Write the structure tokens for this entry.
Amino acid sequence: MSVFYRLYQNNNKRSRVYKKWYARAVMVDTMSTRELAEIMQENCTVKRSDIEAVLRELVPTMTRAMQDSKRVKIDGLGSFKIGLKTKPSVSPKEFSSQKNVLGMHINFMPETYKDSGTNRRVTDLLRRCAVAELPKNAVITDEDEVEAQP
């Protein structure tokens, strides 16, 4: 099991790392809620349909909680919250949500723990994760790729 990557060269002439090479993660497939539920069914005593129902209800429940200004923590996965993109105002009196709030986004913070061997913070989502170059004959469309920032 590996995360595939492709090599890309930085072609931004204004960059201090112009012409340097970087790896970008490439996703080769998408796993649906149904597929996740089928795998989960094999690992526990709950039926696929029950797992799907719970996973589908998770989205509107999380939406409601986050829109009520709450952080949603899913044990073993991480925390989700709404973040704001704003422009500055000269003073607190001059700030208004209509003028200064430009947009919203979701912040995700994976759950981490301290590794006793290295004393570094790590996440279970990346435990024992390996990387490998995408095989040369693999056919991937641009919409399947997820780019890592160099």
User: Anything to note?
Assistant: The CA atoms of residues 19 and 68 lie 46 Å apart. The helical segments are 33-43, 48-67, 97-100.
